Amino acid sequence: MNRQFFGTLLLCAATPLAAQPDHASHAAPRPAAGVWTTQPLLLPAGGRGERAAALVRPSGIAAATLNVYAPVGGPTAGRQTVAVDAAGARISSGTPQLGNFHWLVMREETPERVKVASTAWYFGNPGPSPKALLAETRHELEIVPEPLPREHAQYRESEKWRFVVRLHGQPLAAQPVMLETEFGSRSTFTTDAAGVATVLFPRDFQPQAKESGHGRPSAGFVLSTEKESAGVRYQTAFNLNYGPDADRQRSLAWGAAFGLLGMLAASPLLRRRGQPVNEEVGDA
């Protein structure tokens, strides 16, 4: 191989991965084969489907209905109650023209225990900011992102994100929050005096990560917590997806580049070592 060929390989390895656009899927994650958590989840059933509609499948929770809240303000404004059957729940945006993040919640209840699963679902049409949507109290114990990622962003490995825990609408301090990922990571964080848990996403992405709706690697995570109040045990969970650290692919590219440089530097030595030794024979 000549130097020009090695230079071309070096250029290809060092540049294209860092130049990829930062798009992300806003659907809830797809689980890995088998059960990776016992926490309640709301997951997409099949592909993204129509622009303003989708099918959501519950896991680890059983209820006859699912509530979908549009980002229009007020605890019941824009709420749709959707029936759940064997295939899941068919959800849609508040109106065909109303998009942005919607809040999805399912509740399973007995006199002794209340279980809540929640997620955010992004519909592609323009719509109001989800800030007011997330500020509304809808259940006794809640985990709510503060904030959600922007439209063309996502949670990522090695990043810190804030999640607020509320009990009866009030911030819950000193409350443990458990993070689980599809790749088996487990960690616990504790809320501060404002009820905020600052969650560090683990650097645990595996080669078998599925691609999201925009063709980028994606994996599932769930945050969960439990609290007993007035003789009732409350369990709540929030699940979505996260992506790999952007520097991970850049590091792989530079690793390949340095490997090629090493090969290039070593090639003259290898050629010299392979040449025959010319011995001079003197007169007897």
Describe the overall structure.
- The protein has helices spanning 3-14, 131-135, 246-274, and strands at residues 41-44, 53-59, 65-69, 79-85, 88-92, 100-109, 113-123, 141-145, 155-156, 160-167, 170-171, 176-181, 186-190, 196-200, 210-211, 217-229, 232-243.
- The chain is an alpha+beta fold and 284 residues long.
- It has one domain (24-248): Immunoglobulins (Immunoglobulin-like), CATH 2.60.40.
- Strands 1, 2, 3, 4, 5, 6, 7, 9, 12, 13, 15, 16 and 17 form a 13-stranded mixed beta sheet that branches.
- Helix 1 packs antiparallel against helix 3 (246-274).
- The protein is globular, with a radius of gyration of 26 Å.
- Residues 5-33, 252-258 and 279-284 have low confidence and may be disordered.
SSE arrangement:
Layout: H1 3-14, E1 41-44, E2 53-59, E3 65-69, E4 79-85, E5 88-92, E6 100-109, E7 113-123, H2 131-135, E8 141-145, E9 155-156, E10 160-167, E11 170-171, E12 176-181, E13 186-190, E14 196-200, E15 210-211, E16 217-229, E17 232-243, H3 246-274
Parallel strand pairs: 7-17, 9-17
Antiparallel strand pairs: 1-2, 2-5, 3-4, 3-6, 4-5, 6-7, 8-10, 10-11, 10-14, 12-13, 12-16, 15-16, 16-17
